[in-house]
Design a protein that fits this description.
Helix content: 25-40%
Shape: elongated
Largest sheet: 11 strands, mixed
CATH architecture of the largest domain: 3-Layer(aba) Sandwich
Oligomer: single chain
CATH topology of the largest domain: D-Maltodextrin-Binding Protein, domain 2
CATH superfamily of the largest domain: Periplasmic binding protein-like II
Order of helices and strands: HEHEHEEEHEHEHEHEEHHE
Strand content: 15-25%
Radius of gyration: 18 Å
Structural class: alpha/beta
């Protein structure tokens, strides 16, 4: 893929590619290496993108998805790895998804809730990570249940456990871990939705957005996403189909 000077200028106006990462998404961003450099699927893709642009990557770290998304308003990053949600699309131009992560519910021991329909009923309180992609989705889709937002994924688990809420919404790979911490708890079968993980850039950068779409389809076609998933031993995620 050839890169025009206009594309480089839009994607890296400071001379570096400022890459926004959400550290609360443990599937895409792992613990930093001893030297402080980010590790994981998203950092790998960020380095690949910077390499193709001929610039150095400059990682900008956030501890929650909502904070990462809000960073676009302050011009804190040039590209960001985050869930593709309509509520964010007014200010962020998203690529097609490169990865999908299933979302479902965890319910406590002895819970009568068996299905997603059971969850969306009056009196059911659902813990959720504030401003996560699935929080935004559930805000649109739930009709009767009450969403109780907490700061970050770990915060939502603590709220669910401490306040004895009826359900915890989350990424299925994380809920598998949470279920092991709460004896007798159970993950509901199926998926409420699948979070579409994409690369975003500020809405005004049309040339950059076009290039990023091509970049995502290229790395999917060349198997780089699948290789990153295997290299970092990330379970429960799948490469998104061709757009």
């Amino acid at each position: 893929m050839s890169v025009s000077p206009a594309t480089v200028s839009e994607l890296a106006p400071t001379g570096k590619l400022r890459i926004g990462l959400n550290y609360s998404n443990f599937l895409l961003v792992l613990k930093d290496a001893p030297d402080g450099s980010p590790q994981g699927i998203a950092p790998d893709l960020g380095r690949e993108l910077a390499s193709r642009l001929g610039v150095k990557p400059d990682f900008v770290k956030f501890d929650a998805a909502g904070k990462l998304a809000d960073g676009v308003k302050k011009g804190m990053w040039d590209v960001a790895f985050l869930g593709n949600e309509p509520a964010r699309a007014n200010e962020i131009a998203f690529t097609p998804a490169y990865l999908e992560i299933p979302v479902t519910y965890l319910v406590p021991a002895g819970s009568p809730l068996k299905s997603f329909a059971d969850v969306d009923q009056p009196g059911v309180r659902i813990a959720v990570a504030d401003q996560s992609a699935y929080h935004l989705f559930l805000t649109r889709s739930l009709k009767k249940a009450e969403l109780v937002a907490a700061d970050g994924i770990e915060g939502s688990y603590k709220m669910f456990a401490d306040l004895k809420l009826e359900a915890l919404a989350g990424l299925k790979p994380r809920l598998i871990t949470d279920a092991q911490r709460l004896p007798g708890s159970r993950i509901l079968d199926g998926q409420v939705t699948a979070v579409q993980q994409s690369i975003g850039t500020p809405k005004s950068r049309e040339t950059a957005a076009r290039y990023l779409k091509e970049f995502v389809e290229d790395v999917k076609a060349k198997g780089l996403i699948g290789e990153a998933i295997s290299r970092h031993k990330v379970n429960g995620v799948t490469v998104a189909p061709k757009a």
